Amino acid sequence: MPTALGRLRGREPGFDEAVARARDLLAAAAPPGGAMGTESGDSGYVTFELDNAARDLGRGEVESAFATRGGAMVEAIVRSTLRPSFYMARDRVLSAREGLSPMARQLMEGMDLDFDDRAMFDANRALLETCARAAGRLDLFNGFREYAGTGWLVDDGIAVTNRHVAELFARRWMGDDWDFRDGQFDRKVEVRLNPLAQIDTPPDPVRAAFVTAVLWVAGPGEPDMAFLRVHAPGTEPIPLSEAPLAPETPVAVVGYPERDPRDNPAELIGSFFGDRFGVKRLAPGRVMGSDGWVLDHDASTLGGNSGSVVMAMETGAAVGLHFAGAAQERNVAVPAATVAAALRRVKSRVTVPALPAGATPAEPEASRPDSFADRKGFDRAFLGADTPLPCFGRWADDLAPVAGGGTELKYCHFSVWQSATRRLPLMTAVNIHGAHLRRIPRKGRWQLDGRLDPAHQVGNELYRSNPLDRGHMVRRLDPCWAEDITDTDTILKAQADTFHYTNSVPQHANLNQRDWVGLEDYILDASGEYDFKVNVFTGPVFRDDDRHLRNQAGAQDIAIPREFWKVAVMRRAACGNLSATGYVLSHGEMIKGLTEAEFVLGAYETYQVPLALIEGATGLDFGALKAADPLAVTSLREAAFGQQVRRVRGADDLSLTPR
Questions:
Q1: What angle, rounded to 10 degrees, do the helices at 13-29 and 336-349 form?
Q2: Domain count along the chain
Q3: For residue 312, how many C-alpha atoms fall within 13 Å in the half-sphere facing its CB?
Q4: Which of 602, 526, 604, 603 is nearest to 564 (CA)?
Q5: Which of 42, 78, 143, 176 is 20 to 30 A from 554 via CA?
Q6: How many CB atoms lie within 10 A of CB 7?
Q7: Which residue segment(s) compose the domain that 46 sits in?
Q8: Residue 27: closest CA among 18, 35, 39
Q9: Are residue 323 and residue 420 in the same domain, yes or no?
């Protein structure tokens, strides 16, 4: 038994008995030759396979990334009549065609809405709708898919889902600890429990429940469960009912079915589900049987329903955690008693404190000022010749003072200058030694910097419960080098330094930043004649009309930048001349009139631009570096052809030397 489960064993008889019974049932169901997809031979109703997950990442089938025991366990339509899956809109169940919006009416055209137990459902509709508010779609940011499945609040600050769902975004880190998987753009996957992924329903940031930690994940062959820590203020968890259920007890399954043709007849999918998937549904059904270890039901489900809550229709209490099914036969859930037993043990070792009304979670401790004693910061002579710092111009009087004197926050291989009024970095500067870089696994804990007044910086209160990312200004990997490539201490120290909030500016999670994050790689790829050494200055574009977040406790004064800039400086080995190139991540505001109209005010793109353009937008002064700008040399010739601005999608798009 995995160590994580071993900690639950021996103290909770209900959980131990459930595990033992599950093993017996699974052993009887396993085909000859051991379990599929496991080395140990442990079997399970559902065995997650990482190879299958990688193969299926692009399919758009949320639940296709797990194998089945004996070819039987998939999400299922069990009955061919009386088992519809109702849309939900604005937290209401659309179980009839009366009073619908035009959108809902069109989506429900041709759907079969008949089901038994309508009288009980109508009598308890309001209760069921209230409880269903706690169920949400597990949306992924920086991931390789849009969402992973379903989860629901089972306790204050704790959500439950299936193991095979959690493994899509979480991985075992060390011992019993789990961490979020590495995602796109050199960032961890971020997860949000989204209860408003419904038809005809506007978003509401207050209802977004961001997953802040993976508390516990069951091992292979164990009940298919995982618990997540979430920040979901104002949402009541669904109560658990551990009482045994008789066959034919009416239930309702709330989750997010995805289009899933596996073993399910197309005509039934159309009749019960219509043609809109990945949105919140309530599916009525009945208990088929329960021996206390496995709960069988006949509500209609499809891929994406994994992690759904099975509620008693009469009370709204959770009676099971849906995890799989056999088409035309049965659906199966982990009984609520097993969920409750595991939850009690998890809570005993992981404290999720309730916050007083109006309180906000405590911020991480600031790093100690004396911990930076050996940090030299940005080296102006790194390229073999002095790289002049930009002048701060109108921002000079706004730089936050640093304990010990000056305004430069020195870290390992980089420095930061902080705006006191904006409480965000005005500019960062990093030395990158491409030949000595080490690509180490991402690991770091965001901290405030103890050398700054807390009033001049902002922590997690800016990022809590909204779709903003902590956008590294100095990219995590850029300072991760050492003259001695085996000097791991220096490299790890540099990575840890990048996880200070002074190196973070909020960026929307959906920002198109593949080329922006990869820009340093593009530059290094094109910099063979520059000895693979680069100095990079980076910062946000602060504007007077930048917008503030509403209802963001502790961070209402923070204005969110909309655009970002970089300047890369290199020195040609052959002649010693500097090259200084400027770049912006922009949706067009900075480059209006400089490029084709179709590029303006559209999607965010990365562009190479003249340094003078960045000066005008930021108020900084790049001084002598402008003379080393290839676009400054060519711009007079190319201005007539609209080529002062170059879209960057790879190393071949860069102009590093005058032509």
A1: 130
A2: 2
A3: 18
A4: 604
A5: 143
A6: 16
A7: 3-349
A8: 35
A9: no
How far apart are the C-alpha atoms of 93 and 198, rounded to whole Å? Answer: 10
- Torsion (CA) 269, 270, 271, 272 in degrees, nearest 10: 50
Higher pLDDT, 15 or 547: 547
- Give the residue from 650, 646, 572 showing the smallest Cα distance to 613: 646
Quick check: is 500 catalytic? Answer: no
Q: Strands, E, within 19-163: which ranges?
A: 46-48, 66-68, 86-89, 92-93, 135-141, 147-155, 158-161
Q: Are residues 223 and 162 in the same domain?
A: yes
Residue 541 lies in a domain: yes
d(CA 611, CA 624): 11
For the chain, helix (H) and strand (E) counts, in that order, are 13, 30
344 and 474, same domain (yes or no): no
pTM passes above 0.85: no
The three-state (H, E, C) secondary structure of 354-367, written as one string: CCCCCCCCCCCCCE
Is residue 252 classed as helix, strand or coil in its secondary structure? strand
Beta-bridged to residue 634, according to DSSP, are none
- Residue 47 structure tokens: 């065995």
pLDDT in tens, 267-308: 677 666 887 889 999 999 999 998 777 899 999 888 889 999
The reply to whether 355 falls in a domain is no
Strands 646-647, 605-609: pairing is: antiparallel
Give the DSSP H/E element, type plus range, for residue 288: strand 281-290
CATH code of the domain containing 542:
3.40.570.10
551 in a known ligand binding site: no
**CA–CA separation, 609 vs 382, rounded Å?**
24
Alpha helices of 133-220 — where are they, by DSSP H?
Answer: 163-166
The two structure tokens encoding residue 275? 């043609």
Q: Which of 285, 320, 349 is the last residue of a domain?
A: 349
Q: Are 326 and 391 in the same domain? A: no
Question: What are the backbone dihedrals phi and psi of residue 394, each rounded to the nearest 5 degrees, phi first?
Answer: -70, -10
- Give all strands (DSSP E) within 513-562, no chain letters: 533-540, 547-548, 559-560
**Per-residue confidence (pLDDT) for residue 446, from 0 to 100:** 92
Model pLDDT for residues 248-262, shown as the tens digit of each residue = 999 999 999 987 666
Q: Are residues 522 and 578 in the same domain?
A: yes
Q: Are 485 and 442 in contact (CB under 8 A)?
A: no
C-alpha separations of 49 from 222, 446, 539, 582 in Å: 15, 32, 42, 45
Dist. CA 478–CA 244, nearest whole Å: 57
Length of the chain: 659
Tokens 């052993």 belong to 27
Residue 363 lies in a domain: no
* CA angle (342 as vertex; 337, 347 as ends), nearest 5: 125
Rounded CA separation 435/533 (Å)? 8
One domain, residues 373 and 503: yes
State the catalytic residue, choosing from 297, 433, 472, 500.
472
Structural domain ending residue among the three candidates 290, 321, 349: 349
Q: Which two tokens stand for residue 158?
A: 């704790």
CB atoms within 10 A of CB 192: 23
Domain annotation covers residue 146:
yes
